[in-house]
Amino acid sequence: MATPSNAPVATENRETWTSNTGFILAAVGSAVGLGNIWRFPGVAYESGGGAFMIPYLCALLTAGIPILFLDYAIGHRYRAAAPLAYRRIRKPAEALGWFQILLSFVIAVYYAAVIAWAMSYFVFAFDLSWGQDTLAFFVGDYLQVGDPEISTTIVPGIAIPLVITWVAVLIAIALGVAKGVEKVNVLFIPLLFVAFIGLVIRALTLPGALDGLTEFFTPDWAALGDLDVWIAAYSQIFFSLSIAFGIMVTYASFQRRKANMTSSGLVVAFANSSFELLAGIGVFATLGFMAHQQSTQVSELEGLTGPILSFVTFPAVINEMPGGTIFGVVFFASLIMAGFTSIISILLGVAASVGEKFGLGWRTSAVSVSAVCAVLSIGLFSTTSGLIALDTVDQFANNVGIVLSAIVMTVLLVWVYRRGELLRQHLNAVSTFKVGKWWIVLIGFVGPVFLVIMLVQKLVSLVSEGYEGYPGWYVGLFGWGTVVFVIVMAAILTAIPWKGRDQADFRPWPELEEEHR
Ligand code: PHE
């Protein structure tokens, strides 16, 4: 019997988010993460300050939002985690799904380490036990960083919070989409926004705050001519919005059939960028205070990017701030909440993909995937070479892997499988904010052209200059090795015959013209 084309297929027993708000909070939870708090302020500052807003907005409008919509359209129409969703479009495309999910998996493995550090620092903040020399404390006493080598010396101070992180992730995932992941987000996301706004207000009332903001927002127009700045803007948007990682495909697949997808997407993108900007303001106001205390300029300060910003510079500022303890506790609690709501999105994506492929129950796949991740993150990142490994893997996953993923995804869907129009109709059939043909132009032309230029430029610089002066074999193993690992594993997983349910009982809804092939 044919299903009337205006009614969703009733036989579906896929779990769903309990409401649109639940979905939006979860998607915001995935997007707002460590990337907003420690990645954005540093990247923006290094890449032209106020002028960075131009490439940033371009990246958001030409690639960020359009690819977010694309992720949503695929997941929502084909109702599965990334590998199966792509497989339902065309069988071989399953490999792209695995490529994306594996990249996310790699990120989860190191992302957990940063959450674990934040947990330790949350505890340290109560009595400022990091002492006066916060750099020596972080690198020496806490991480016990050694040379770029393969170290097997586990640092218990990292391993313990790491185990706690993974157990918490496992519990959230095992409880399921609505009872686990959605609940965590409904609780943490409002809390995170309130806590963070509190931090920003405190930061803005510190002496010197305005100097920090002036430094942050002073545009360096010359930066706009630098290709690297544009690359930085695009990778920031991808990482920050969690797009092209297969994660938003998976999240959208748990959305009810009748759901306003594009409007939700706009809310998520807006919330994410606002949070990012807020973080930039908070961080630079705080740095302004630090410069003020040391009677110097913000531009003279060191350690403004990456983990160093959160784990070395911030503790140093907290030491000097009246009421620093509360600020520190709230800051690290915010990092934990932001990070946790992002990492569970990744694990949900990985677990759902593995479960669907091998026909495993929800709990079984959650346990097995979390166990593998936990072992890998403890083995790789709680050792004395953890920080360097993390930096290298991050660089390759985010500047090479994800760009490649976005190129293959857009070219495959728009040009090879010609699904642009169908997916556009899908979005428009369910959403109130309609997407015009411009969307196909963006995902089919503008996006891929920019991305290919970026990728080539990045590859040339990595091949010719290496990375951060680390030894060649090390960059080969952890950097290029990550990319090769993801590609090879994607091929292997695709080659394994599909064991779960795949096409047989699946019918896309709403029925659209192009589907009758
Ligand atoms: N968007 C998250 C952040 O900004 C990171 C993330 C990447 C989450 C990829 C899911 C998938 O920190």
Automatic annotation (TrEMBL):
Q: Which domain of life is it from?
A: Bacteria
Matching InterPro entries: Na/ntran_symport, SNS_sf
Membrane topology term: Multi-pass membrane protein
State where the protein is found. Answer: Membrane
Report TM segments. 21-40, 52-74, 95-124, 154-175, 187-210, 230-254, 266-291, 326-354, 366-390, 396-417, 438-457, 477-498
Q: Does the keyword Transmembrane apply?
A: yes
Please name the Pfam families in this protein's record. Answer: SNF (PF00209)
Q: Which UniProt keywords apply?
A: Membrane, Transmembrane, Transmembrane helix, Transport
Q: Does the keyword Membrane apply?
A: yes
Q: Which residues form the signal peptide?
A: none
Give the CC-aspect GO terms. Answer: membrane
Annotated PANTHER family: TRANSPORTER
The name this protein carries in UniProt is Sodium-dependent transporter
Highest lineage ranks of the organism? Answer: Bacteria, Bacillati, Actinomycetota, Actinomycetes, Micrococcales
